[in-house]
Specification:
Strand order of the largest sheet: 3-2-1-4-5-7-6
Shape: globular
CATH topology: Rossmann fold
Bound molecules: S-adenosylmethionine
Helix content: 25-40%
Distance between the termini: 20 Å
Number of domains: 1
Number of strands: 7
CATH architecture: 3-Layer(aba) Sandwich
Structural class: alpha/beta
Order of helices and strands: HHEHEEHEHEHEE
Radius of gyration: 15 Å
Low-confidence stretches: none
CATH class: Alpha Beta
């Protein structure tokens, strides 16, 4: 897929995904360039101030951008004027809200988990969302390292262990100590 330089959009929207911080945009660039989208739908778990949703909306103007956050104060205030952004309030592991999002959107080519970074919730939402994706969809989990903090891992079950357990069933496109991209649903 032909796309503009994503890092420029991440810098403009002051995202920690940009090269001077986490440096995730170089991976998104490769992921999206190699993607053949069937829906042109992207879902990001974790909205905060909506900067990331705006970044995707601007970089991918012919896509529909969906966001979910469990904090109603976390929203993209003037986002509704940007027609390709759709926001939902609820937890990343809430079946009802995930059902609603899929009912509304159909399916997603890209899912980004930048929400709680708490291992059990991260695993729960992967288990709710991944089986519904199509085989070429990409599911990205950001900030994996955060999950190793004890307060992020109250059940002493790391998302790393989970990824180890699924790696024979899914294609791990990108796998380092900060971020994983998974394909093959
Ligand atoms: C790192 S911020 C998201 C930043 C945003 N993706 C960006 O790049 O601009 C994390 C967000 O996840 C939300 N969050 C925390 N726990 C959540 C949960 N269980 N379900 C959904 N969202 C959650 C927080 O309210 C917060 O707004």
């Amino acid at each position: 897929m032909n796309i503009p330089i994503l890092n420029n959009f991440a810098i403009k929207h002051e995202l920690d995904k940009a090269d001077q911080h986490h440096g995730y945009m170089q991976y998104y660039q490769v992921i999206l360039e190699n993607l053949t989208p069937t829906h042109k739908h992207l879902l990001e778990l974790g909205i905060h101030k909506g900067n990331s949703l705006r970044m995707w909306a601007e970089a991918l103007p012919d896509w529909e951008i969906y966001g979910l956050d469990n904090n109603s104060l976390r929203s993209c205030p003037d986002s509704y004027s940007e027609l390709n952004i759709h926001q939902y309030i609820g937890s990343q592991n809430d079946l009802d809200i995930i059902n609603k999002i899929f009912n509304d959107a159909g399916n997603f080519d890209v899912v980004v988990d930048d929400a709680s970074h708490i291992s059990p919730l991260t695993i729960d939402s992967f288990k709710l969302i991944a089986p519904r994706l199509h085989k070429d969809s990409i599911y990205v989990i950001e900030d994996l390292g955060v999950c190793e903090r004890p307060e992020c891992n109250p059940y002493n079950f790391s998302v790393w262990q989970f990824l180890e357990s699924i790696k024979n069933d899914y294609k791990i496109v990108q796998y380092n100590d900060e971020m994983v991209s998974i394909q093959g649903f």
